[in-house]
Amino acid sequence: MAADNPVPPEMKWQWEVPNTFWPSNATDKSTVFGSFLFPSERTHFLLTTIEGMTDPRVSDTEVVARMMEVVLRDPDSELDRVPQVVSSIHKKLRGISEASLQAILNRTLFQMACLDPDQVVEGLLNTSLLCDGVAGAMWRTLVCEHCPAEEVLKELLFWLWDQPLLRRASFMPNDSYILPLTAIRALNEILRLPSSKVPVQLIFPQLYLAVLFQIFFSMEYTLQDLQDYSQMCGQEDECPPVSPVRSAVQAMKALLCRADYAHLADSVERQGGWDMLMSMETYHTGVTLLTRELWMNAADECAWVFDHVVAVLSCRDKQREIAAMAVFTELLNCTDFEQEIDEDVLGFLQLHLCNQSLAMREMVIAGLVTLSERRQTARSLQDLLPALMERLQGADSNFCTKALTILSHVLHLVDRKRASAIGLQLAEELRPLFDDEAARVRELSIQLFQHVMAIVVGSQQEQMRKHVHSSLLPLLIHAHEEIPSVAQASREALLSAAKLLKWEQLRHLLETAQTWQIGECLLVRDRSRAEEYLRQSLPYLESPQECLREVAVRFLGLVGRHMSEQGEEKLQDICKALQSVVSDTSPYVWSLAVQTILILRAPREKAPSGFTLRTLCYRLRRAWRRWHPPPRDSAL
Fold first, then answer.
1. Cα-based distances in Å from 475 to 427, 478, 489, 627
2. Which residues form the Maestro/Maestro-like HEAT-repeats domain (predicted)?
3. Do residues 513 and 506 lie in contact, with contact meaning Cβ atoms separated by under 8 Å?
4. What are φ and ψ of residue 504, in 5° steps?
5. Mean pLDDT of the chain
6. What does the pLDDT look like over 408-432, one tens digit per residue?
7. For every residue of 271-296, which 3-state class applies, written as one string?
8. With 0-12 CB in 10 A as exposed, 13-18 as middle and 19+ as buried, what is 422?
9. pTM for the model
10. Contacts of 466 (CB under 8 A, 6+ apart)
11. Positive or negative torsion for Cα 36, 39, 43, 48
12. Measured between alpha carbons, how far is 609 from 354 in angstroms, rounded to an integer?
């Protein structure tokens, strides 16, 4: 008889395939009819059973369990209106306390997730936008076994990657714009279960980056926003007293712990990183800290993260660019990422050199510094040099320091003809930076100027000599700086200038350390530049460095004597400028200014042909002794 009536393959599969979740004694052959239900019939059956399971006439819960099994056990079963069934389960769980019925509903939810995880996840997200206690338990049910857990997390990742747009001009209830915030709360519930460890580890880099972006997105919303939206959608869920951004940060902590990086989370905590992530002003700093810790503790996870943030930057995703740039900049410091940077990324970096956000500008320039330090990637930065030069004027000292570093690194790799053209343009941009308030900027700009003098060739050298002539006095004054590195850079640049100009006397004075004679040397060599030197020296009377103010006063005395033949008006202009120094905080400087004014205003006889700087210094010393100050050597 058995041979005449072979067992249908569908029924044989149902009998033979083990299932650890469902009762093993469900052997009634009548259950096979569930395989022949249409999706709409199957859904109607489930909804009817869920609705009637609490009817007083239903006394055998095992019957209810078998009825659910009938329609869901076939792995090829198709479901219809899944979100409606999920919502019905949620509603029923909120209203029953009997453990056996709760277990049946949870088993039903679990089996539905095995059949259609995408619809179940979306349905549960929409069912409880605030992820109340019942919804939290349902999320944990979905990942209690590995089989559906991985698919559930992947689907949840899809929603986590999206940006919440709660504040739209208009929206309809149950729109999906709030679901990323709900997904974060759901992820927190899922990560509470040890069974989520393996699926989390499989997609950790993707989850890490998605949660990182959600932290930034969620800062725009408050707890009240979620409550208002939930009520508008007709839900009266009890909302956990946690703001969206705090919930997202908690999810990141839980993610690290579940992926066996609890020590990383602790390290970030000690450095205040979690608090940084919750503030718009310090978010990028928190991302940098977190990414650095990830590299130090889980370098293998960083390759995918790096590749993906490069993709985000390439497509110019404005919503994610702050976090992506912070991750990109930090991971550039890792030696594994030596590949050339895509042109789209370079375009993005160039675009954001002028970004209104200070944080973005700082991250961009820091990333470019790292790229410029590696020969392979530095070559790709040549097209960015003009943009960097344009940004030098008016930029803060931090930006200028990094920009000058990049220019120094990349110029060495540019072909000679192109480097010559860039160098000529750069010479003009560098001159104002000699007087920057930051010593490091002064030093780097002077060093780069010295390098530029060497790379300009051909017909452009004549124009370069004009820039060099205009820079001689500023370099001379800075050669007397109290910052040794700046003073040394200035003297070396002056020596290179003397060689370029083929000025042997200036070269001899520098090589023999006779800097006190260089001022007169400049004036004697070209008297037509005296007025230019006068204009250049005046700002140094207000320098914060006493030694530079002193040099400026002395040089103005020299200029006054050399311009005496041009009339009283010029001398009065110089004396007026020196008069502003009389109230100087340094007794030495104001005394020197007073004496210089007296000498310049004194009745003058025709100066002997042998008048030199030495004569002026002698007169200044003689006038100085009348005031009985402490002795001090002359700077010029």
1. 13, 5, 9, 32
2. 346-600
3. no
4. -65, -40
5. 81
6. 999 988 888 888 999 999 999 999 9
7. CCHHHHHCCCCCHHHHHHHHHHHHHH
8. buried
9. 0.74
10. none
11. negative
12. 57
pLDDT at 172: 42
401 compared with 520, residue with greater pLDDT: 401
Residue 169 has, within 13 A of its CA and on its CB side, a CA count of 0
Q: Determine if residue 211 is left, alpha or beta; phi over 0 gives left, psi from -120 to 50 gives alpha, anything else beta.
A: alpha
The answer to whether 177 and 162 are in contact (CB under 8 A) is no
Calculate Rg over the CA atoms of the chain.
39
Q: How many CB atoms lie within 10 A of CB 255?
A: 23
Distance, C-alpha 456 to centroid of its chain? 36
Q: Which residue has the tokens 């008889």?
A: 1
Q: What's at 465, amino acid-wise?
A: R
In the chain, DSSP finds a helix count (H) and a strand count (E) of 34, 0
CA distance linking residue 563 with residue 574, whole number of Å: 10
What is Dmax (Cα atoms) for the chain? Answer: 143
Other residues' Cβ atoms within 10 Å of the Cβ of residue 169:
4
Mark residue 628 as left, alpha or beta (left: phi above 0; alpha: psi -120 to 50; beta: remaining).
left
Count of other CB atoms within 10 angstroms of residue 542: 12
DSSP string of 78-102, one letter each residue: --SSHHHHHHHHHHHHHH---HHHH
Distance CA 455, CA 425 (A): 12
